[in-house]
Design goal:
79 residues, mainly alpha
């Protein structure tokens, strides 16, 4: 569909801007995918540590408070 009120240079400028936006969106998607994959690897790593530990494992926050929902005994049960 042609818009006779728009000139070729205007249309070319708009096409160029749209191509740039597509490139930025593709790059952002790629970065998010990499971050997501890295997070999944970390989760699997720490899950393996917890599951294969014979010790009681707990999580402390920066103030040293224990977070009960993360506590796990050696048999895998939560308090």
């Amino acid at each position: 569909m042609e818009d006779p009120s728009r000139t070729n240079p205007e249309l070319n400028k708009e096409i160029s801007a749209l191509k740039q936006k597509i490139k930025e969106l593709e790059q952002s998607k790629s970065e998010r995918k990499g971050i997501s994959e890295a997070r999944l690897e970390r989760e699997e790593y720490f899950k393996a540590i917890i599951q294969n530990s014979s010790d009681i494992t707990f999580v402390l926050d920066k103030l040293g408070n224990i977070h009960d929902k993360f506590c796990q005994g050696e048999n895998g049960d939560f308090p």
